[in-house]
Design brief:
260 residues; 6-stranded parallel β-sheet
Length: 260
Amino acid sequence: MSAPITLLCLPNAGGSSAMYQRWKRLLPDWISVMPLELPGRGRRSSQALICDYSAMVTRLCSEYLLLPQRTYALFGHSMGGLLAYGMAQRLRQLGESRAPRALLVSATAAPTRRGPLISNLDDESLIAEMRRQGGTPQEAFASTELMQMVLPLMRADYQVCASFRSDVQNRPLDIPLHVFAGRADTNTPRQMEAWRSETQSAFSLEWFEGGHFYLRGERQERQLMCALERLLASAGSDQRFAPDAQRVERTGAAIALSGQ
């Protein structure tokens, strides 16, 4: 069996930790899947939404540092990939023992290649954008009650993404960086390939059939799980890092510290 490692998972805009619950059954036991719940959704639905990228990264890092030290990697899809990148940059400043073993990002353009994003969309435009991305079930759009809950969350998350600014002072990471993308997504190969400049270590870019939410396809999900297992086996065996202080067991709960 490969060395134990915890995979911290961050959701896309409008998403929650629920999107990663299946992975606990699909990945081997030596990978502890730890979905991170963002304020304003799931178990944290009573908390105020965060609309600023830097504030969100600061909150996530401070909450994670309350947990026992462990061997871990970061995974994020779409907005989650951008947040995972921010966490990796922030946490490495605390020293090698606190840095992630690897950064894995999915369906999000590299920091230096992100196009402009309008954050103050009206409801009609926001719904049109959700339809374009393809991540929302069609029957959800027919529910006025559901849309009243989802739209404020989507708007706040779009503001998070729009408030991101690439910091030229950020040095490239010194950990492996692995990127996943859908061939039919609007992110271009150039935007995805540009992630290469964000690390001085190993880099890979893997393409899957499908669009922005390629990972919801049954075959693509299996392919992604195989890729994660392969890449995390390599990351977990890296001897530059200190061993786990404590193993996190696989549970059904998402991490949601603040305000519980």
